[in-house]
Amino acid sequence: MRVLVLLGPPGAGKGTQAVLLAQRLDLVHIATGDLLREHQRQGTPLGLQARSYMEKGLLVPDNLVIQMLLERLRKPDCLQRGCVLDGFPRTLEQARALDEALGPNGVERVVLVQVSEGELVRRLGGRWICRTCQRPYHTVSSPPKVPGRCDVDGGELYQREDDRPEAVRQRLRVYQEQTAPLVAYYRRQGKLVEVNGEGEVEAVHRSILEAVQAPSPATDSR
Ligand code: AMP
Hints:
Layout: E1 3-7, H1 14-25, E2 28-31, H2 32-42, H3 45-56, H4 62-73, H5 76-81, E3 83-86, H6 92-102, E4 109-114, H7 117-125, E5 127-130, E6 136-138, E7 157-158, H8 165-179, H9 181-188, E8 192-196, H10 201-213
Bound molecules: adenosine monophosphate.
Adenosine monophosphate binds at residues 10, 32-33, 36, 53-54, 57-60, 65, 87-88, 90, 94, 162, 171.
């Protein structure tokens, strides 16, 4: 199965870019954060278990997220078309579970979207999301045409609990401690490509496309 991974800190634009990349390459977009929020809305046992972690900006325990993701990967759309993973894996344990599930070839390519810390805080602080379609807006860089309403479907815009300042700082700490080690993990596998995530959405999209279509980067042992 063709699996591409977008890796990067919260606020790097993974969500926006994952949607564009999936559309362009006709892959299924899978965002574990969206799946977990959907479980919460529906009040499933997983949603209830995940809520307190998510509100504090902590990671949901590996066993819960891994099971949810592997179930999603087994659905026919993924099996037939492959997928772009957004927000998974976030720990070494998740990366290993994914490799095991995918077999010898593992993931095809991992794109690290790089953005400076100051820019991340600015972006996350102004982020508002449509309750209906999950499309993100930003009070400064991409405001909706009508304040508080989604341009596409008129849905109500809301600020995620974990986009508040204290939770944002916590999420950045969690990224450094638990997710950043994946950079070395995938670099060793020769799968990692790095892209500057600070440009215009369209320009970043083009860099990501080039990065996933370029020949495989050399394996190294850093
Ligand atoms: P996101 O929408 O990707 O920023 O994810 C929002 C929150 O969902 C995170 O802060 C975590 O609490 C939880 N979450 C999403 N993906 C994962 C994952 N792969 N592992 C653990 N927790 C996750």
